[in-house]
Specification:
disordered N terminus, alpha/beta, single chain, 18% strand
């Protein structure tokens, strides 16, 4: 699940994850930003943003460690957005993350947090109540459908060639694998991550009460305030003018 062939990518296709438009400074947006600014959107855009916010969850979190291929990073982030996985963690143990330009449009819609060590990432995830599971084709791994969706789950995917760093192993609650029945013995990491997130979010939606699975109302409102401000570059000036 974690082995790929190297693919050459030109520098013009690569984007540092810092440039994705993801707010990393914990900017506080006005509590009434959405209420005041959303009339500036088209009806279709407003409805789409509200639907996406309502579908977001933090019951499942994606963790990427040292993914080499920029297109794999981008595909994983796009899949997280597609399946409503709001919280993503990127961990650079041996190399800096770079994403392809395909991720430019999705970065601002996700909560992406960077870490410099496994221990730092583990501490952050544990503090948020997550249990840790890694996609590793190991003899002790259990099938994906055996992971318990009644708990908050962080799924960790490591480097395409080396897999997860050994520093993860003492912290893992369980290793898992995606059952396969063909001649191939591994999946591209972005495919594995997509299958995993789709499976876990589907099962969690079917199993958990709506109020448990989805973001709390206060967090959803905070997200709408953030997103509307990020949609409108001049939002401080616009709000000042609206308030007189």
């Amino acid at each position: 699940m974690q082995r790929d062939k190297d693919r050459q990518v030109s520098d013009t296709e690569l984007v540092d994850i810092d440039t994705l438009g993801v707010p990393q400074d914990q900017t506080e947006y006005p509590d009434d930003a959405w209420d005041l600014l959303n009339p500036l959107l088209t009806d279709a855009r407003r409805a789409r943003i509200m639907a996406v916010a309502s579908g977001r969850t933090e019951r499942v979190s994606l963790v990427l460690q040292d993914i080499h291929d920029s297109h794999n990073v981008s595909a994983c982030l796009r899949s997280a957005d597609a399946f409503g996985v709001h919280s993503c963690h990127v961990l650079s143990v041996k190399q800096r993350f770079r994403t392809s330009t395909v991720a430019r449009g999705v970065g601002a819609w996700l909560k992406i947090k960077r870490h410099q060590s496994v221990e730092e990432c583990v501490a952050d995830l544990r503090a948020a109540g997550y249990r840790l599971y890694a996609g590793v084709p190991a003899p002790t791994a259990v099938p994906l459908d055996k992971l318990p969706v009644t708990e908050k789950i962080a799924v960790v995917f490591g480097n395409e060639h080396a897999g997860i760093d050994s520093a993860w192993l003492p912290h893992m609650d369980q290793l898992f694998t995606i059952p396969m029945f063909g001649m191939v013995e591994s999946l591209n990491i972005s495919v594995g991550a997509a299958i995993t997130m789709q499976h876990l979010t589907h099962r969690a939606r079917e199993t958990l009460p709506t109020e448990t699975y989805h973001l709390a109302e206060a967090e959803r409102r905070r997200l709408l305030n953030q997103w509307i401000c990020e949609q409108l570059r001049g939002w401080p000036t616009i709000l000042k003018r609206m308030r007189g």
